[in-house]
Structure formats: structure tokens, C-alpha cells
Amino acid sequence: MFTGLVERAAPVVGVKAAKGGLVLEVDLGVCSEGVRHGDSICVAGACLTVISLEGTVAGFDLSPETIEKTVFSSALAGRSVNIERSLRVGDRLGGHFVSGHVDGLGEVVAIENHEDFSTHFYRAPAEMHAFLVSKGSITVDGVSLTIAELQGNGVFSVALIPETLDSTTLAELGVGDSVHLEGDLLGKYVQRILELRT
Question: What region does 4 belong to: left with phi over 0, alpha with psi -120 to 50, or beta?
């Protein structure tokens, strides 16, 4: 379980072929402290398991399922990804409940910069439209955000403050880029309960 409060943007140092999948290597830097083999880490919004740790560089297995639902297969060395270690009992929950399970790939459709602030517009895939709620929570590449406004046809906006732009990879996005989206966990349970009642 995660909160969507990114600890740092960490560089990808390698993507290697493995039998049936890939191994993603990320330099966790200071976030490697306390990390052990088998730990779960949220990498750009996806919950991945540490399979190796050499110094500060962690390796993560990417299964065919993960490769299909993420952009990791196109990740290049030098690109940064948002990192968050798993939530510990007793930690403050400053964002929202994030499982690290990518629901779908979104697309950046517009960016409006306002001096130090920015408004991003993303388009969510059709299967995620039910999770889009004005002033509700959404995770974009592992970042806990509030939907500012719904535009229709799956397009929504988020307002990004300087702190978010400085400490995550969202400032590096451009129109047409793909992003990992995760709908609000509580909304998923509500939707499932309603489905079972009909």
C-alpha cells in the first residue's frame, strides 16, 4: 500500500531482457535505505518487487502482464521514474490509498503553464471513466492528485503546484505522452458492490 506522495524521481539505469519478461533497473539513491530483497516499491505508479539490490540500484521483474499495461517496455536509461517505498503502519496518510495497480494508460492532451504552476489535461481510457470524480483522487505515474475538473470524454484536469513539479517527473511530460493511471481504491470497491447488487 502506498500514498501517492513521491519520495524522489529516480533514474532508470537499465532495461534488460529476461525469460518471458524484462528486468527494470532503477537507481533509488537515498530511497535504497532500508530496502530489502522482496520489498514492494511503487515505481511510476506500479507496485514492483525488488529482486536485486546492488548498492543503490534495485532490479525489478516485469511480467508480460505488467509490460502490457505499462510503458516500461519503452523506458530508456536516463529517464526518471517516481519512487515511493511502501506505507508503514503508523505513517501519516498525506495522499490517498494507492495500491500500485495500474488501471490503464492515459494520454497527456494539453499543458497550460502559469508561471510556477501548471495545469495538465489527461485523457483516461473508457474503462476508467467511472472512477473520474470532480475533486476526487487519482494517481498519475504514482503521484496522488486531485481531479480539478472533468472535461468530458474521459478528459480531466489537475492543478500542479511547484513542489509537485519539482519533486516528480510530471514536469517532464509533453502532449501525447502516456501516463500510468490508477483510480481511487475506495471508488473501485463501491463500483464492485453496485455491480453485484444489479
Answer: left
CA geometry: angle 130, 136, 137, nearest 5 deg: 95
Average pLDDT over residues 71-81: 83
pLDDT at 75 over 70: no
**Are 114 and 21 spatial neighbours (Cβ–Cβ below 8 Å)?**
no
CATH fold, domain 104-197, is: Elongation Factor Tu (Ef-tu); domain 3 (2.40.30)
What's the CA gap between 70 and 87, in Å, rounded?
22
Confidence of residue 188 (pLDDT cuts 50, 70, 90): confident
C-alpha dist (Å) from residue 117 to 111, 163, 165 = 11, 9, 8
d(CA 3, CA 118): 22
Domain formed by 8-85, architecture:
Beta Barrel (2.40)
The count of C-alpha atoms lying within 13 angstroms of the C-alpha of 17, restricted to the half-sphere facing its C-beta, is 1
Convert 101-129 into a string of H (helix), E (strand) and C (coil): CCCEEEEEEEEEEECCEEEEEEECCHHHH
* Whether the model pTM is above 0.90: yes
